[in-house]
Amino acid sequence: MSKYGNLLSKNVTRSIRHCLVGPKQQWRFDPPPQDWAPPPLKQTSLYLHVPFCSNYCPYCPYTKVAYDEMLVEPYTQAALTEVNWWADKIGPAEITSIYIGGGAPTLALESVTRILASIRKKFRLTGDICIETNPSDVDDATMQKHHNADVSLVSLGVQSFYSKNLKIIGRNYESSVAEHALTLLVNGGYASVNVDLMFALPGQTVGDVIKDLDKAAKLGANQITSYPLFTFPYTSIGKYLNLTSVQMPDLKTRW
């Protein structure tokens, strides 16, 4: 992005935030005071983060660590401790939805199942459970584990059905793997199947994007989430430590 375009984008973003939430909102997370406690809640939703990953996509800004079986149990105990803490603080609130993201939650499904069981004991779960998964992790055994944990919604991180685009952004599977995974999920008994697709990739045309959208729809996805490539400054793309040719397109291209 040009210097002018970058400045314009920042100013527009800052203005929109100011109008929507006011000038006092801080756009960063700070640790709460030690004596802080949440108010009692009658109803809320829940996000469970599973940080383990086997494929470090260089554009990904989310908290992640390389999968290590020895780390799964400590993670599980920490998550269970947090479930108990929140239950003690807010009481048996109604949980209207649970979203499980990562990382790659599929790598620790037994852990996820245990955590969900604890949530059901401590809270009143009335909504759907959605889980993220990668194309290379989808098979009959994985889907059965989803259903055993009462997961009814699934989100598949395809990003593109073009192998050349997958290679550019560091995804370690071919387009045929993504197509096969989506077909399995669509026929796997889920209430909804979402597909994540990226656009504004280097060399990608509008026609490529439309074909990706068409492919997802024709294969049976009933929801599509699409977003542009972002070179977050704290990812390896942003630091130009990996795939140096991959940079966020300028403002005009993104629009």
Descriptive key words:
single chain; 255 residues; alpha/beta; TIM Barrel; two-stranded parallel ribbon; 8 helices; 8 strands; globular
Overview of the molecule:
It is a single chain. With 255 residues, the protein is of the alpha/beta class. The protein has helices spanning 3-21, 69-90, 109-122, 140-148, 163-168, 175-186, 206-218, 251-254, and strands spanning 43-50, 52-53, 65-66, 94-102, 124-133, 153-159, 192-199, 223-228. The longest helix is centred in the N-terminal third of the chain and has 22 residues, at 69-90. The model has no long low-confidence stretch (mean pLDDT 86).
Quick structural summary:
The protein is α/β, with parallel strands linked by helices and 255 residues long. The protein has helices at 3-21, 69-90, 109-122, 140-148, 163-168, 175-186, 206-218, 251-254, and strands at 43-50, 52-53, 65-66, 94-102, 124-133, 153-159, 192-199, 223-228. The chain folds into two domains: 1-30; 42-254, Aldolase class I (TIM Barrel).
What is the CA-based Rg, rounded? 20 Å
Order of strands, widest sheet:
1-4-5-6-7-8
What characterizes the major β-sheet?
6 strands, parallel
CATH architecture of the largest domain: Alpha-Beta Barrel
Mean pLDDT: 86
| The CATH homologous superfamily of the largest domain | Aldolase class I
CATH topology type of the largest domain? TIM Barrel
Number of domains: 2
